[in-house]
Every structure is written in structure tokens, then in C-alpha cells.
């Protein structure tokens, strides 16, 4: 997948990016934000995908903030893992703008790691989805979140100023 978000991209490039984002599972509102296409144009993308035989899940979830995403130390571990992967793939540039290609790769890695956890059927271990990943990346970009390093275990972890849990390292808990 080659998703790039350049400021002066052509309509075709933005349409292709929207198509790839829709296939990856991003919700329409995020696709609109990232591609600058209208909702009507996004609906056309979905229609073309359906005509091409793609079966896309209906996603009604709106995007959320750290206040609803990070509710306990387990969700903080998930956020930390996902955002550390994103930062490692995208580099320091992700602190300035969202890199959809890096985020999609990071989410794929995160989900593959998640699927290897032995007790994935447990309700408290539900994974983030791609929309949640974008929301966390948006908080990181807008300086409403940061990746910190623990002085005790030396692990990196994600902290949002909006989270409803402790700001301490979730790995030391």
C-alpha cells in the first residue's frame, strides 16, 4: 500500500488515497479530513469499491479522544504499543502531521501482535480500531499527547492529556 498525503496532490491522487483508506477501514469523516474530498466524493469511492466487489464493514463509530480511549492501564498499554509503532515507522514527522501510510502500517503490526495475545476473547482486551489509531495520532500531532520514557523500566509509553487514567507508566503497574 502506498498512501501518501501531500499538500498539493491531484484529485486522482486524493481519490486513490481515499480508496486505500476506505479499504483499510478509516471512517468517512477521517477520509474527508485527510484527502480534502467531499462526503459526496467519498460516497462515490465507496460505491466504486462495492462495484469492484469489496465488502466494507459499516462503521458508525465517530472519532474519539484519549478521554474515552484510555480508560485503564490495559488500554494505555494498547495505546502505547500502537503509538510507539507509529512513531518508529513515521519518525519525528508524526509529531507535526499525521502520516496515513505509517499509521496504517503501525495499525497492521499492532493488530497482528494483538491477535497473538492468548486471551484475546476477554472483553477487557478489545483492540483499538483504525479510527482509534487515527484519533491517538491526531492527539500526538496536536500536542495533546506525548510519548514518554519511564525512569524505572525504561519503556516508552503514550500519555494523553485527556485520558481518564493515571499518567504513570502502564508497564510498571
Description:
Strands 1-2 form a two-stranded antiparallel sheet. By secondary structure, the protein is mostly helical. It has helices at 11-24, 28-35, 39-51, 66-69, 73-90, 100-115, 130-141; strands at 145-149, 156-160. α1 (11-24) packs across α3 (39-51), α5 (73-90) packs across α6 (100-115) and α6 (100-115) packs across α7. It is built from seven helices and two strands.
Features:
single chain, 173 residues, mainly alpha, two-stranded antiparallel sheet
How many domain units? 2
The level of helicity is: 40-55%
Number of strands: 2
- The rounded Rg comes to 17 Å
Question: Into which percentage range does the β-strand content fall?
Answer: 5-15%
Structural class given helices, strands, pairing? mainly alpha
Largest sheet report:
2 strands, antiparallel
Q: Uncertain regions: pLDDT < 50 for 5+ in a row?
A: 1-6
Helix and strand succession? HHHHHHHEE
Distance between the termini: 37 Å
What are the SSEs and their pairings?
Elements: H1 11-24, H2 28-35, H3 39-51, H4 66-69, H5 73-90, H6 100-115, H7 130-141, E1 145-149, E2 156-160
Antiparallel strand pairs: 1-2
Helix pairs in contact: 1-2, 1-3, 5-6, 6-7
Concise structural overview:
With 173 residues, this protein is mainly alpha-helical.
Amino acid at each position: 500500500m502506498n498512501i501518501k498525503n501531500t499538500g498539493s496532490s491531484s484529485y486522482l491522487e486524493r481519490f486513490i488515497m481515499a480508496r486505500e483508506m476506505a479499504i483499510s477501514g478509516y471512517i468517512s469523516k477521517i477520509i474527508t479530513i485527510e484527502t480534502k474530498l467531499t462526503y459526496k466524493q467519498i460516497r462515490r469511492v465507496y460505491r466504486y469499491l462495492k462495484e469492484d466487489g469489496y465488502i466494507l464493514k459499516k462503521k458508525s463509530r465517530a472519532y474519539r479522544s484519549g478521554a474515552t480511549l484510555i480508560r485503564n492501564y490495559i488500554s494505555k498499554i494498547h495505546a502505547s504499543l500502537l503509538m510507539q509503532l507509529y512513531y518508529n515507522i513515521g519518525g519525528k514527522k508524526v509529531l507535526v502531521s499525521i502520516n496515513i501510510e505509517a499509521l496504517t502500517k503501525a495499525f497492521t503490526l499492532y493488530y497482528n501482535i494483538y491477535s497473538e495475545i492468548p486471551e484475546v476473547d476477554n472483553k477487557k482486551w478489545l483492540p483499538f480500531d483504525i479510527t482509534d489509531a487515527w484519533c491517538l495520532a491526531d492527539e500526538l500531532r496536536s500536542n495533546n499527547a506525548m510519548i514518554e520514557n519511564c525512569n524505572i523500566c525504561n519503556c516508552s509509553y503514550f500519555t494523553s492529556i485527556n485520558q481518564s487514567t493515571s499518567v504513570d507508566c502502564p508497564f510498571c503497574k
